[in-house]
């Protein structure tokens, strides 16, 4: 009985350490994106900043979560913010340079870039519309008023 408790404790500590290490490593990657010159990121995207916040959506053709959850969330945010938001969709299978530049590890992923082109937020995995809207609001973006 004591052996089982000891094994359970060791496994619990190992899992907790792995989660902490993974969060630290991902946070370090996002911090690196924030301080990196924006020009390289935009070159990888094949476009330039236009003064509006940009939501970069990374996906692949085979990504089920991208189609069923992330794209509807992005469409909701896009309809809420209208022309105040620029949405750039990146197919990771066709634009591997963008994946490398943004250090994308999984699809879906999203990056929110400020009007000056710098990365302000990065979401590994699915990001719901509420989270994306909160990140846009933190940048000072305002939803389009209904007519």
Strand order of the largest sheet: 2-1-3-4
CATH class of the largest domain, named: Alpha Beta
Query: How is the CATH topology of the largest domain named?
Result: Glutaredoxin
> How many domains would you count in the coordinates?
2
Q: Into which percentage range does the β-strand content fall?
A: 15-25%
Q: Mind explaining what this structure looks like?
A:
By secondary structure, the chain is α+β, with helices and mostly antiparallel strands. It folds into 2 domains: 1-35; 38-138, Glutaredoxin (3-Layer(aba) Sandwich). It has 5 helices and 4 strands; from the N terminus they run H-H-E-H-E-H-E-E-H. Strands 2-1-3-4 form a 4-stranded mixed β-sheet, sandwiched between helices. The longest helix is centred in the N-terminal third of the chain and has 34 residues, at 2-35. It is elongated, with a radius of gyration of 18 Å. The relative contact order is 0.18. The mean pLDDT is 87.
């Amino acid at each position: 009985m004591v052996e089982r408790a000891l094994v359970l404790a060791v496994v619990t500590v190992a899992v907790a350490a792995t989660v902490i290490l993974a969060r630290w490593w991902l946070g370090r990657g996002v911090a690196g994106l924030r301080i990196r010159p924006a020009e390289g990121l935009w070159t990888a995207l094949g476009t330039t900043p236009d003064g509006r916040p940009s939501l970069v959506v990374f996906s692949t053709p085979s990504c089920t979560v991208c189609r069923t959850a992330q794209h509807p969330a992005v469409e909701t945010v896009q309809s809420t913010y209208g022309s105040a938001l620029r949405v750039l969709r990146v197919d990771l299978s066709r634009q591997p340079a963008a994946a490398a530049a943004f250090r994308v590890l999984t699809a879906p992923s999203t990056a929110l870039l400020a009007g000056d082109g710098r990365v302000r937020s990065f979401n590994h995995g699915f990001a719901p519309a509420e989270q994306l809207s909160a990140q846009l609001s933190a940048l000072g973006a305002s939803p389009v008023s209904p007519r």
